[in-house]
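Work Package 4 report. The design task specified in the project plan requires that, given a folded chain encoded as C-alpha coordinates, an amino acid be chosen for each position. We show below one input record used in the internal validation round.
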Protein backbone atom coordinates (compact mmCIF):
# COMPACT_ATOMS: atom_id res chain seq x y z
CA UNK A 1 0.00 0.00 0.00
CA UNK A 2 1.37 3.43 -0.88
CA UNK A 3 1.52 6.00 1.90
CA UNK A 4 0.10 9.45 1.07
CA UNK A 5 2.52 12.29 1.69
CA UNK A 6 0.27 13.79 4.35
CA UNK A 7 -0.12 10.50 6.24
CA UNK A 8 2.47 11.62 8.82
CA UNK A 9 0.43 14.68 9.88
CA UNK A 10 -2.17 12.89 12.00
CA UNK A 11 0.59 10.93 13.71
CA UNK A 12 2.44 14.12 14.57
CA UNK A 13 -0.73 15.65 15.95
CA UNK A 14 -1.37 12.53 17.97
CA UNK A 15 2.11 12.58 19.49
CA UNK A 16 1.84 16.32 20.17
CA UNK A 17 -1.42 15.81 22.01
CA UNK A 18 0.11 13.00 24.04
CA UNK A 19 3.03 15.19 24.99
CA UNK A 20 0.63 17.94 26.08
CA UNK A 21 -1.23 15.42 28.21
CA UNK A 22 1.87 14.91 30.37
CA UNK A 23 2.36 18.57 31.24
CA UNK A 24 0.30 18.90 34.38
CA UNK A 25 -1.06 15.53 35.45
CA UNK A 26 -1.38 11.96 34.33
CA UNK A 27 -4.89 12.69 33.09
CA UNK A 28 -4.02 15.61 30.82
CA UNK A 29 -4.33 19.41 31.13
CA UNK A 30 -5.29 22.18 28.73
CA UNK A 31 -3.90 22.32 25.21
CA UNK A 32 -2.30 25.78 25.49
CA UNK A 33 0.60 24.60 27.66
CA UNK A 34 4.08 24.59 26.10
CA UNK A 35 5.28 21.64 24.07
CA UNK A 36 8.26 19.47 24.94
CA UNK A 37 10.62 21.85 23.21
CA UNK A 38 9.42 24.74 25.39
CA UNK A 39 7.60 26.59 22.60
CA UNK A 40 3.82 27.08 22.62
CA UNK A 41 2.30 24.16 20.74
CA UNK A 42 0.18 26.32 18.43
CA UNK A 43 3.09 28.60 17.54
CA UNK A 44 6.00 26.22 17.12
CA UNK A 45 5.23 24.86 13.64
CA UNK A 46 7.21 27.66 12.02
CA UNK A 47 10.05 27.78 14.52
CA UNK A 48 13.54 27.28 13.15
CA UNK A 49 15.53 27.71 16.38
CA UNK A 50 14.70 26.38 19.84
CA UNK A 51 16.08 28.31 22.78
CA UNK A 52 14.08 26.90 25.70
CA UNK A 53 14.68 23.46 27.22
CA UNK A 54 11.59 22.17 28.94
CA UNK A 55 11.90 21.21 32.59
CA UNK A 56 9.51 18.68 34.18
CA UNK A 57 9.54 17.01 37.58
CA UNK A 58 7.49 13.92 38.42
CA UNK A 59 6.89 13.99 42.17
CA UNK A 60 5.94 11.29 44.66
CA UNK A 61 6.78 8.14 42.67
CA UNK A 62 8.18 4.70 43.46
CA UNK A 63 11.22 4.75 41.17
CA UNK A 64 13.04 1.57 40.22
CA UNK A 65 16.19 3.15 38.83
CA UNK A 66 17.87 -0.16 37.80
CA UNK A 67 21.06 1.44 39.14
CA UNK A 68 20.35 0.78 42.81
CA UNK A 69 17.50 0.10 45.22
CA UNK A 70 13.95 1.30 44.57
CA UNK A 71 13.36 4.82 45.85
CA UNK A 72 9.94 5.35 47.42
CA UNK A 73 8.36 8.80 47.50
CA UNK A 74 10.99 10.04 45.06
CA UNK A 75 11.11 12.57 42.24
CA UNK A 76 12.28 12.27 38.64
CA UNK A 77 13.44 15.53 37.08
CA UNK A 78 13.73 15.87 33.29
CA UNK A 79 15.42 18.61 31.32
CA UNK A 80 14.60 18.18 27.67
CA UNK A 81 15.45 14.64 26.63
CA UNK A 82 17.65 13.78 29.62
CA UNK A 83 17.36 12.92 33.29
CA UNK A 84 18.47 15.85 35.44
CA UNK A 85 17.83 14.38 38.88
CA UNK A 86 16.46 11.41 40.82
CA UNK A 87 15.75 11.49 44.55
CA UNK A 88 13.50 12.78 47.30
CA UNK A 89 12.35 16.41 47.48
CA UNK A 90 14.46 17.56 44.56
CA UNK A 91 14.97 21.31 44.30
CA UNK A 92 14.17 22.31 40.72
CA UNK A 93 14.24 25.64 38.88
CA UNK A 94 11.33 28.02 39.03
CA UNK A 95 8.92 27.39 36.20
CA UNK A 96 9.49 23.62 36.17
CA UNK A 97 6.26 21.80 35.37
CA UNK A 98 5.15 19.47 38.13
CA UNK A 99 3.39 16.13 37.66
CA UNK A 100 2.10 14.41 40.78
CA UNK A 101 2.56 10.65 40.27
CA UNK A 102 0.42 9.91 43.35
CA UNK A 103 2.69 7.03 44.33
CA UNK A 104 2.80 5.42 40.86
CA UNK A 105 5.68 3.11 39.97
CA UNK A 106 8.28 4.35 37.48
CA UNK A 107 10.92 2.24 35.72
CA UNK A 108 13.38 2.79 32.90
CA UNK A 109 11.98 1.97 29.48
CA UNK A 110 12.12 -1.77 28.90
CA UNK A 111 14.58 -3.08 26.31
CA UNK A 112 14.12 -6.24 24.24
CA UNK A 113 17.54 -7.42 23.01
CA UNK A 114 16.19 -10.05 20.59
CA UNK A 115 13.23 -9.10 18.44
CA UNK A 116 11.92 -9.79 14.96
CA UNK A 117 9.33 -7.02 15.01
CA UNK A 118 9.30 -5.29 11.65
CA UNK A 119 11.04 -8.12 9.81
CA UNK A 120 8.34 -10.68 10.63
CA UNK A 121 5.41 -8.31 10.82
CA UNK A 122 1.84 -8.89 11.93
CA UNK A 123 -0.25 -10.59 10.78
CA UNK A 124 2.06 -13.60 10.48
CA UNK A 125 1.85 -14.38 6.77
CA UNK A 126 4.42 -15.34 4.15
CA UNK A 127 4.33 -11.84 2.66
CA UNK A 128 5.73 -10.46 5.93
CA UNK A 129 8.56 -13.00 6.25
CA UNK A 130 11.59 -10.77 5.67
CA UNK A 131 13.88 -11.91 8.46
CA UNK A 132 15.84 -14.83 6.98
CA UNK A 133 17.89 -14.39 3.81
CA UNK A 134 18.48 -18.13 3.53
CA UNK A 135 19.91 -18.03 0.01
CA UNK A 136 23.39 -18.78 1.37
CA UNK A 137 24.83 -19.98 4.66
CA UNK A 138 26.86 -16.76 5.05
CA UNK A 139 25.07 -13.44 4.44
CA UNK A 140 27.02 -10.85 6.48
CA UNK A 141 26.08 -8.07 4.07
CA UNK A 142 22.30 -8.13 4.63
CA UNK A 143 20.88 -5.74 7.22
CA UNK A 144 17.72 -6.11 9.28
CA UNK A 145 17.08 -2.38 8.95
CA UNK A 146 16.55 -2.88 5.21
CA UNK A 147 13.65 -5.24 5.92
CA UNK A 148 12.21 -3.33 8.87
CA UNK A 149 8.56 -2.33 8.36
CA UNK A 150 7.77 0.73 10.50
CA UNK A 151 4.03 0.13 10.09
CA UNK A 152 4.14 -3.26 11.84
CA UNK A 153 1.18 -3.33 14.27
CA UNK A 154 3.47 -5.11 16.76
CA UNK A 155 5.30 -1.82 17.40
CA UNK A 156 2.37 -0.25 19.23
CA UNK A 157 1.71 -3.51 21.07
CA UNK A 158 5.30 -3.48 22.32
CA UNK A 159 4.92 0.13 23.46
CA UNK A 160 1.79 -0.87 25.36
CA UNK A 161 4.02 -3.20 27.39
CA UNK A 162 6.48 -0.44 28.30
CA UNK A 163 9.14 -1.37 25.74
CA UNK A 164 11.07 1.62 24.38
CA UNK A 165 13.96 -0.03 22.52
CA UNK A 166 14.27 -3.31 20.62
CA UNK A 167 17.18 -4.96 18.88
CA UNK A 168 15.94 -6.36 15.58
CA UNK A 169 17.91 -9.35 14.34
CA UNK A 170 17.81 -11.48 11.23
CA UNK A 171 16.64 -15.04 11.82
CA UNK A 172 18.78 -18.07 12.57
CA UNK A 173 18.63 -19.98 9.28
CA UNK A 174 22.28 -19.19 8.48
CA UNK A 175 25.60 -19.58 10.27
CA UNK A 176 25.98 -15.83 9.65
CA UNK A 177 22.57 -14.29 9.10
CA UNK A 178 23.31 -10.58 8.75
CA UNK A 179 23.42 -7.36 10.72
CA UNK A 180 21.07 -6.44 13.54
CA UNK A 181 19.90 -2.93 14.42
CA UNK A 182 18.72 -1.21 17.59
CA UNK A 183 15.38 0.55 17.09
CA UNK A 184 13.69 3.16 19.24
CA UNK A 185 9.95 2.57 19.27
CA UNK A 186 9.19 6.17 18.40
CA UNK A 187 6.66 5.90 15.56
CA UNK A 188 7.91 7.09 12.18
CA UNK A 189 7.29 6.44 8.51
CA UNK A 190 10.79 5.18 7.72
CA UNK A 191 13.04 2.62 9.35
CA UNK A 192 16.00 5.00 9.33
CA UNK A 193 14.05 7.49 11.44
CA UNK A 194 13.61 4.84 14.17
CA UNK A 195 17.24 3.68 14.37
CA UNK A 196 18.83 4.23 17.80
CA UNK A 197 21.45 6.80 16.90
CA UNK A 198 25.03 5.72 17.53
CA UNK A 199 24.16 2.19 18.68
CA UNK A 200 26.71 -0.43 17.60
CA UNK A 201 25.71 -2.80 14.84
CA UNK A 202 25.58 -6.51 15.55
CA UNK A 203 26.17 -9.66 13.52
CA UNK A 204 23.66 -12.46 13.97
CA UNK A 205 25.26 -15.89 14.06
CA UNK A 206 23.69 -19.26 14.74
CA UNK A 207 24.76 -22.76 15.61
CA UNK A 208 23.02 -26.05 16.15
CA UNK A 209 19.92 -27.40 14.50
CA UNK A 210 18.72 -24.49 12.36
CA UNK A 211 21.62 -23.95 9.90
CA UNK A 212 22.09 -27.67 9.20
CA UNK A 213 18.34 -28.17 8.82
CA UNK A 214 17.95 -25.25 6.40
CA UNK A 215 21.13 -25.70 4.35
CA UNK A 216 21.90 -29.40 4.73
CA UNK A 217 19.11 -30.75 2.57
CA UNK A 218 20.21 -33.07 -0.25
CA UNK A 219 23.91 -32.48 -0.82
CA UNK A 220 23.94 -28.99 0.69
CA UNK A 221 26.13 -28.02 3.60
CA UNK A 222 26.49 -27.90 6.51
CA UNK A 223 24.80 -31.20 7.23
CA UNK A 224 26.37 -31.71 10.67
CA UNK A 225 27.65 -29.69 13.61
CA UNK A 226 31.21 -30.53 12.59
CA UNK A 227 30.40 -29.08 9.18
CA UNK A 228 29.16 -25.92 10.85
CA UNK A 229 32.37 -25.57 12.81
CA UNK A 230 34.56 -26.10 9.76
CA UNK A 231 32.66 -23.47 7.77
CA UNK A 232 32.78 -20.99 10.66
CA UNK A 233 36.52 -21.50 11.11
CA UNK A 234 37.11 -20.75 7.43
CA UNK A 235 34.84 -17.69 7.58
CA UNK A 236 36.73 -16.30 10.55
CA UNK A 237 40.04 -17.01 8.81
CA UNK A 238 38.86 -15.07 5.76
CA UNK A 239 37.63 -12.23 7.98
CA UNK A 240 41.00 -11.96 9.72
CA UNK A 241 42.81 -11.72 6.41
CA UNK A 242 40.65 -8.96 4.89
CA UNK A 243 41.55 -5.27 5.05
CA UNK A 244 38.71 -2.91 4.06
CA UNK A 245 39.50 -0.41 1.33
CA UNK A 246 37.64 2.90 1.50
CA UNK A 247 37.90 3.41 -2.27
CA UNK A 248 36.15 0.16 -3.09
CA UNK A 249 33.92 -1.22 -0.34
CA UNK A 250 33.26 -4.95 -0.32
CA UNK A 251 29.79 -5.44 1.15
CA UNK A 252 30.47 -9.09 2.02
CA UNK A 253 34.00 -8.92 3.36
CA UNK A 254 34.03 -5.52 5.08
CA UNK A 255 31.43 -6.58 7.70
CA UNK A 256 33.48 -9.73 8.30
CA UNK A 257 36.54 -7.59 9.03
CA UNK A 258 34.44 -5.38 11.33
CA UNK A 259 33.45 -8.48 13.30
CA UNK A 260 37.08 -9.56 13.53
CA UNK A 261 38.08 -6.12 14.84
CA UNK A 262 35.23 -6.01 17.36
CA UNK A 263 33.53 -3.03 15.70
CA UNK A 264 30.45 -5.16 14.98
CA UNK A 265 29.32 -7.22 17.97
CA UNK A 266 28.49 -10.89 17.68
CA UNK A 267 25.02 -11.90 18.88
CA UNK A 268 25.07 -15.69 18.73
CA UNK A 269 21.94 -17.88 18.65
CA UNK A 270 22.90 -20.99 20.62
CA UNK A 271 21.03 -23.36 22.95
CA UNK A 272 23.34 -26.13 24.16
CA UNK A 273 26.05 -25.70 26.79
CA UNK A 274 28.65 -27.69 24.84
CA UNK A 275 28.13 -25.56 21.74
CA UNK A 276 28.52 -22.35 23.71
CA UNK A 277 31.87 -23.58 25.02
CA UNK A 278 32.82 -24.73 21.54
CA UNK A 279 32.06 -21.31 20.08
CA UNK A 280 33.98 -19.55 22.84
CA UNK A 281 37.03 -21.69 22.03
CA UNK A 282 36.66 -21.07 18.30
CA UNK A 283 36.25 -17.31 18.68
CA UNK A 284 39.22 -17.18 21.04
CA UNK A 285 41.42 -18.61 18.28
CA UNK A 286 40.65 -15.46 16.27
CA UNK A 287 40.74 -12.92 19.08
CA UNK A 288 37.01 -12.24 19.19
CA UNK A 289 34.12 -13.21 21.44
CA UNK A 290 30.35 -12.93 21.29
CA UNK A 291 28.67 -10.13 23.16
CA UNK A 292 26.00 -12.62 24.19
CA UNK A 293 24.55 -16.04 23.51
CA UNK A 294 20.87 -15.82 22.68
CA UNK A 295 18.15 -18.23 23.82
CA UNK A 296 20.87 -20.09 25.75
CA UNK A 297 18.56 -22.51 27.54
CA UNK A 298 21.54 -24.51 28.87
CA UNK A 299 23.60 -21.46 29.86
CA UNK A 300 23.14 -22.30 33.54
CA UNK A 301 25.47 -25.28 33.01
CA UNK A 302 28.33 -23.04 31.87
CA UNK A 303 27.54 -19.91 33.85
CA UNK A 304 31.01 -19.67 35.42
CA UNK A 305 32.68 -19.88 31.99
CA UNK A 306 30.38 -17.16 30.62
CA UNK A 307 31.06 -14.93 33.61
CA UNK A 308 34.82 -15.38 33.24
CA UNK A 309 34.66 -14.58 29.53
CA UNK A 310 32.40 -11.56 30.20
CA UNK A 311 29.85 -12.86 27.73
CA UNK A 312 26.18 -12.10 28.31
CA UNK A 313 23.18 -14.42 28.08
CA UNK A 314 19.82 -13.55 26.53
CA UNK A 315 17.20 -16.02 27.73
CA UNK A 316 13.51 -16.69 28.25
CA UNK A 317 11.91 -16.94 31.66
CA UNK A 318 10.47 -20.40 31.11
CA UNK A 319 10.06 -21.21 27.40
CA UNK A 320 11.38 -24.59 26.31
CA UNK A 321 10.73 -27.63 24.08
CA UNK A 322 9.82 -27.34 20.37
CA UNK A 323 13.03 -29.10 19.28
CA UNK A 324 15.67 -31.28 20.90
CA UNK A 325 18.20 -28.55 21.68
CA UNK A 326 15.56 -26.69 23.75
CA UNK A 327 14.68 -29.48 26.16
CA UNK A 328 17.24 -29.22 28.97
CA UNK A 329 15.96 -25.91 30.31
CA UNK A 330 15.36 -24.92 33.95
CA UNK A 331 13.09 -22.02 35.05
CA UNK A 332 15.88 -20.68 37.31
CA UNK A 333 18.22 -20.24 34.32
CA UNK A 334 18.21 -16.42 34.45
CA UNK A 335 18.55 -16.33 38.23
CA UNK A 336 21.45 -18.80 38.26
CA UNK A 337 23.25 -16.79 35.59
CA UNK A 338 22.73 -13.56 37.53
CA UNK A 339 24.11 -15.09 40.72
CA UNK A 340 27.21 -16.24 38.84
CA UNK A 341 27.91 -12.70 37.63
CA UNK A 342 26.69 -13.10 34.04
CA UNK A 343 24.98 -10.14 32.40
CA UNK A 344 21.64 -11.83 31.83
CA UNK A 345 18.76 -10.30 29.90
CA UNK A 346 15.29 -11.53 29.11
CA UNK A 347 14.03 -11.38 25.55
CA UNK A 348 10.78 -11.96 23.74
CA UNK A 349 11.63 -13.36 20.28
CA UNK A 350 7.89 -12.87 19.85
CA UNK A 351 5.37 -10.10 19.10
CA UNK A 352 3.21 -11.52 21.91
CA UNK A 353 5.77 -11.95 24.70
CA UNK A 354 7.19 -8.47 24.11
CA UNK A 355 3.92 -7.11 25.50
CA UNK A 356 4.64 -8.48 28.98
CA UNK A 357 8.40 -8.53 29.54
CA UNK A 358 7.72 -7.16 33.03
CA UNK A 359 5.79 -10.33 33.88
CA UNK A 360 8.54 -12.48 32.38
CA UNK A 361 10.97 -10.81 34.79
CA UNK A 362 8.59 -11.54 37.66
CA UNK A 363 8.38 -15.22 36.68
CA UNK A 364 12.17 -15.53 36.41
CA UNK A 365 12.58 -13.87 39.81
CA UNK A 366 10.01 -16.20 41.37
CA UNK A 367 11.85 -19.22 39.97
CA UNK A 368 15.12 -17.99 41.42
CA UNK A 369 13.59 -17.38 44.84
CA UNK A 370 12.04 -20.85 44.83
CA UNK A 371 15.53 -22.22 44.08
CA UNK A 372 16.80 -20.49 47.22
CA UNK A 373 18.84 -17.79 45.45
CA UNK A 374 19.49 -14.41 47.03
CA UNK A 375 17.70 -12.06 44.63
CA UNK A 376 15.28 -9.17 44.83
CA UNK A 377 12.99 -7.09 42.67
CA UNK A 378 15.75 -4.65 41.74
CA UNK A 379 17.77 -7.54 40.28
CA UNK A 380 14.77 -8.56 38.19
CA UNK A 381 14.17 -5.11 36.74
CA UNK A 382 17.78 -5.02 35.54
CA UNK A 383 17.13 -8.12 33.41
CA UNK A 384 14.80 -6.07 31.20
CA UNK A 385 16.53 -2.67 31.33
CA UNK A 386 20.24 -2.07 31.94
CA UNK A 387 21.48 -5.60 31.21
CA UNK A 388 20.00 -5.71 27.69
CA UNK A 389 21.28 -2.15 27.22
CA UNK A 390 24.80 -3.41 28.02
CA UNK A 391 24.42 -6.30 25.59
CA UNK A 392 23.46 -3.81 22.86
CA UNK A 393 26.22 -1.33 23.77
CA UNK A 394 23.82 1.48 24.70
CA UNK A 395 23.99 1.34 28.50
CA UNK A 396 25.81 4.67 28.60
CA UNK A 397 22.58 6.32 27.39
CA UNK A 398 19.62 4.18 28.46
CA UNK A 399 18.73 1.32 30.77
CA UNK A 400 18.83 3.17 34.10
CA UNK A 401 17.30 6.33 35.53
CA UNK A 402 20.42 8.32 36.41
CA UNK A 403 21.54 11.89 35.88
CA UNK A 404 22.68 12.40 32.31
CA UNK A 405 20.91 9.36 30.89
CA UNK A 406 18.25 9.77 28.22
CA UNK A 407 14.74 10.06 29.61
CA UNK A 408 13.27 6.75 28.45
CA UNK A 409 10.89 5.58 31.17
CA UNK A 410 7.50 4.11 31.98
CA UNK A 411 4.81 5.13 34.44
CA UNK A 412 2.90 2.02 35.56
CA UNK A 413 -0.62 1.51 36.88
CA UNK A 414 0.78 -0.58 39.74
CA UNK A 415 3.70 -2.75 40.79
CA UNK A 416 5.47 -3.52 37.47
CA UNK A 417 6.21 -7.06 38.63
CA UNK A 418 2.51 -7.73 39.17
CA UNK A 419 0.42 -9.61 36.64
CA UNK A 420 -2.12 -6.78 36.91
CA UNK A 421 0.25 -3.91 36.09
CA UNK A 422 -0.11 -1.97 32.85
CA UNK A 423 2.06 0.69 31.29
CA UNK A 424 0.06 3.91 31.63
CA UNK A 425 2.50 6.24 29.90
CA UNK A 426 5.69 5.53 27.98
CA UNK A 427 8.33 8.20 27.35
CA UNK A 428 11.22 8.19 24.90
CA UNK A 429 13.77 11.00 25.29
CA UNK A 430 11.32 12.90 27.46
CA UNK A 431 8.40 12.68 25.03
CA UNK A 432 5.20 10.73 25.58
CA UNK A 433 4.95 8.12 22.83
CA UNK A 434 2.22 6.00 24.40
CA UNK A 435 -0.65 6.94 26.70
CA UNK A 436 -3.12 4.22 27.59
CA UNK A 437 -5.86 6.66 28.55
CA UNK A 438 -5.51 8.96 25.55
CA UNK A 439 -7.76 8.42 22.53
CA UNK A 440 -5.55 7.97 19.49
CA UNK A 441 -5.40 6.75 15.93
CA UNK A 442 -3.60 3.46 15.33
CA UNK A 443 0.11 3.93 14.68
CA UNK A 444 -0.10 1.42 11.84
CA UNK A 445 -2.14 2.06 8.71
CA UNK A 446 -2.73 -1.69 8.71
CA UNK A 447 -5.09 -1.32 11.68
CA UNK A 448 -7.07 1.64 10.37
CA UNK A 449 -10.76 0.74 10.47
CA UNK A 450 -10.08 -2.24 12.74
CA UNK A 451 -9.74 -0.62 16.16
CA UNK A 452 -12.93 0.52 17.83
CA UNK A 453 -12.82 4.31 18.15
Amino acid sequence: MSIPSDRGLPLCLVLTSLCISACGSLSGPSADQPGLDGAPVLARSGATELSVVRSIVIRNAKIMTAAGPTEDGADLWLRGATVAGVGRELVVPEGTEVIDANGAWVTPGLIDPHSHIGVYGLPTVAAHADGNEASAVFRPEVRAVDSFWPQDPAIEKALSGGVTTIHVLPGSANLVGGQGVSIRLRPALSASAMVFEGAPASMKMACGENPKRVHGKGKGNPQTRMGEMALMRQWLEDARGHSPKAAKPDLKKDPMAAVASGEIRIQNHCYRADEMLQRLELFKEYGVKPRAFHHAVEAYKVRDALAEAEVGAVVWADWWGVKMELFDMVPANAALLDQAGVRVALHSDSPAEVQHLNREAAKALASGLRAGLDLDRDDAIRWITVNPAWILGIDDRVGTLEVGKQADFVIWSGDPLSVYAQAKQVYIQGEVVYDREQAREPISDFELGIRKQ
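Confidence is low (pLDDT under 50) at residues 1-51. Validation will be extended to a larger panel in the next phase.
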